[in-house]
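User: My instructor asked us to take a sequence, write out its structure as tokens, and then describe one feature of it. I'm not sure where to start. Here is the sequence I was given:
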Amino acid sequence: MVSPGTSLLFVENLRKHFPIGIGFPPWQPAAHVRAVDNISFDVSAGETLGVVGESGCGKSTMARLLIHLIEPDTGDIKLNGLTIGAKDGIPIPSMRSQVQMVFQDSYASLNPRMPIEESIAFGPISDGVSHKEAMERSIDLMAKVGLEPAMFLHRYPHELSGGQRQRVNIARALAMQPQLLILDEAVSALDKSVEAQVLNLLSDLKAELNLTFIFISHDLNVVRYMSDSVMVMYLGEIVEYGPVKDVYEDPQHPYTQALLSAQPSMDPDHRRQHAPISGDPPNPINPPLGCRFHTRCPMVEGMCRHTAPVLTSPTKTDHSAACHLVTGAINPKPEVPC
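Assistant: Let's start with the prediction itself. The structure tokens for your sequence are:
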């Protein structure tokens, strides 16, 4: 067990470009989709890292790279200081007993022909745990996630609601006794009352089992509730990273500012009259030069069009942003009134 505050997961220069089409010569791809483009971050033991961004920004691809469901093109992923997949590091099968993932589609994640008891026990049995111990672990975890074992263990996935299936998926992930749990839109398909129950369940399990979370979501309020730190992604890159309180109360990157200001206001006297940003993200096959956000940024200057910014912290804290405004290379424009 890693002590709280110690680095558990370290990611450096992680990249994944997907080849598409047939070019010339015929064995060469015509182009590449730059899904994840040289990102680096660190997750401490006991921390919850929230990951936000528009659809297509690379969040889910990044999650799959971390557990090697997709092989990265380049980059290092270290768990407890050991490189995953390296000869002198952690073998991928061993890593998967320490890092587990809960997917968005709760039904597609379960075998429809396997009862819940066996679904939860399948992972530990495959990892060498005895059948008896795996079944005992299955019963214990069903109770932990709030499902009565006597009522649910012998049911099949189609007999459960969406919230119940997601609880089963959480129990199945915990059956491997992981240190790190990756939650990829784990509550986005649930209605709000069930979502609140699952979020509270995750918070309780995190404290009880000393877990570390990477929490991916489109819902900014949910990320704020769950996370200690937050990472904002745009077009395969990290544009802002820092403690959740700092990022939400003092966003540095114009994209983060736009995301937060796009949240609906509960006060009719403070309704936004203008869209914070317009247009769609650029094509990830051929992203723009310089800052990738400059085609939609209201603060854009000439430098943004040809020079890519790097993650920089203006106050020498953990809060950093990839924007020339942060470095002082360009001066901010006056805000447009809402």
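For the description part of your assignment, you could build on this observation: The mean pLDDT is 88. Try explaining in your own words what that tells you about the chain.
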